[in-house]
Every structure is written in structure tokens, then in C-alpha cells.
Amino acid sequence: MKRVLFNYIPSLRYSSDSLLLKTGDKLKQTRIFSSQDLVQFSKLSFDANPLHLDSEYAKKAGFTDRIVPGILVASLFPTIIASHFAGAVYASQTLHFRLPVYVDDEIIGEVEATNIREMKKKYVAKFATRCFNKNGVLVLDGEAMAVLPTLCPMQT
Fold first, then answer.
1. Which of 28, 39, 98, 124 is 20 to 30 A distant from 142 in Cα terms?
2. Residue 26 predicted with pLDDT over 50
3. What is the chain's percent helix, strand, coil content, to nearest 5?
4. CATH architecture assigned to 11-148
5. CA angle 30, 78, 134 (to 5 degrees)
6. What are the GO MF terms of this UniProt record (predicted)?
């Protein structure tokens, strides 16, 4: 049986009939982090924490299985923004890790525009950032800021 490891489901909920990003609009993406994702992340980041790579170690530490690195989960946020706004510059991110994310958990990443202002023919957008598990439980949240070249999202 073949499993979908990366399920890209873009979603933009418009707060009006306009096709421009407005405060309150949400962009979402769903992803399942696989064992291979953890190995590749470990190689790229040089993070060999056994909590991410060794099931027995993770269980002895009180987790039910290997946990996905929080930064890997948080990578959903710039991915969501860049997939809708080509040329976006990700400027800042705060993160609060609420609950562990385990290998093969389905995670829904969401960014919600909370403030948008024009600056020098570009737009500075502030986003509430959240990740939920498949049961709708918050596992990660924070706030991001990005400089957008336009408020018109790409059609995906």
C-alpha cells in the first residue's frame, strides 16, 4: 500500500468577494512527516537527536514514538506563504511548541493574515501561524511576518 507522504492541499478562505489577501484570510496545507523526512532533515541540519531517529530512545524518554523536529513542522509556514505569493520574503517567526508531533501524524498548517500594510510598493503582512493534528488539537503556534510583492495570491 502506497502512503501519501506530502499532501499539498492549498486553501484560501476569502473574507470578501475580492481576490486580494485581507485580514482574516487563511491559507492551509496538510502534511504527513515520514521517517525518511526525519533522516533527511537530520542529514541536512546535522541534528542527530535520538528523539527524532530512535524509537526506543524516544519511548524511554516518555514519548510514544519518534518526534518530528519542531523546526521541521514549522517549515510549513514559509512553504504555505511562498506557494501563494511568489517572491515573498519571510522576515520573522515566533514559535510555541505545544505538543509533540509524531512520525506519520497528519498535520494541518495554517497561516491567518492579522495585519497588512503597504510599504514601498510591497506589502508587509503579519500572520498568526498554527499547526493542528488530525483531531484538531493545536500542536504549534506563533506569529510570522512576510514581505509580499502583491496581495493577489497565485492560483494553485
1. 39
2. yes
3. 20, 35, 40
4. Roll (3.10)
5. 20
6. (3R)-hydroxyacyl-[acyl-carrier-protein] dehydratase activity
Cβ-contact 11, 26 below 8 angstroms: yes
Query: What is the residue extent of each domain of the chain?
Result: 11-148
Label the pairing between strands 26-32 and 89-97.
unpaired
Map grid coordinates 489577501 to a residue: 21
Residue partners of 72: CB distance under 8 A and separation at least 6: 33, 37, 38, 41
Close Cβ partners of 151 (under 8 Å, ≥ 6 residues apart): 20, 21, 22, 116, 123
Q: How confident is the model at residue 145 (pLDDT cuts 50, 70, 90)?
A: very high
Helix (H, G, I), strand (E, B) or coil at 56: helix
Q: Please state the pTM of the whole predicted model.
A: 0.85
